[in-house]
Amino acid sequence: MNKPSISILLAKPRGFCAGVDRAITVVEKAIKKYGPPIYVRHEIVHNEHVVKELEEKGAIFVEELSNIPTGKPVIFSAHGVPKKIPEEAKKLNLSYIDATCPLVSKVHTEAIRHYKKGRKIVLIGHAGHPEVIGTMGQVPQDSMLLIQNVEEAKNLHLESNEEIAYVTQTTLSLDETSEIIETLKIRYPKIIGPSKKDICYATTNRQEAIKLIAKKCDSLIILGSSNSSNAKRLVEVGIKEGCRNSFLINNKDNIPWERLKNMKTLGLSSGASSPEILVEEVIDDMTKRYDVNLEEIAVANETITFNLPRTL
Ligand code: SF4
Question: Is 131 a catalytic site residue?
């Protein structure tokens, strides 16, 4: 029987960014160097598949340092940690290896610089996300305010004689964040922002690629875990750009076949913490049901890599 035809537009770049790649390598190298088990505070990156694979290799993921025996270093996740966490590790006699993405650390440095200059800091980000908790924890509580949307930017109450600066989470929607920053600039024309934007290159490129393909697709599948900020943003960008059938799925087992009926063009991408194997498996499953014409649509060629911590 003839299979129906389908075009798959594969977004590039997709999947692992340099920060995720580095964080996973840190865990793997630590397991090799110190032997299993190696404790990691929080999921090293927000992806179920990655976490499971590392668990099989000997990683143990915990939320509290007090659950970790001494003797081997604990690893801090790519999202970054508040300052009190390394301090707590020292008190517990634990050494640590910091797998915080250097681009998150850059935001921490900015926040600390603003604080030292006596500026009130506005953080644009999502409440409760570990990166936001980590960034807020770089400075005393009353020196940073979190806002999540334009409405909150409009309702900010800051003293007009205060020097104000803003920083952002690295994995936000480019367009929504621009609107929030514009609102802040209208209300506080002297507000100081980063010299280069805080939303990272990987988030930017993945969203730009989705903008390019979403208009041409009947459906869009993003591979990523439900707690992955940048993967969720890709789905939102897809919907905003006109592809209402945009889905976040963990892996091929969650492909929403019913909702893909009569589809002619499928967009496909993955969040910055999703391994490429998950994309390949979706394409394989599509090939079993459809006569697939695969086309990669590229907006950028990423060559960035980050050095590993010196201890490794
Ligand atoms: S998404 Fe950006 S900030 Fe986050 S780990 Fe990757 S490169 Fe770093």
Answer: yes
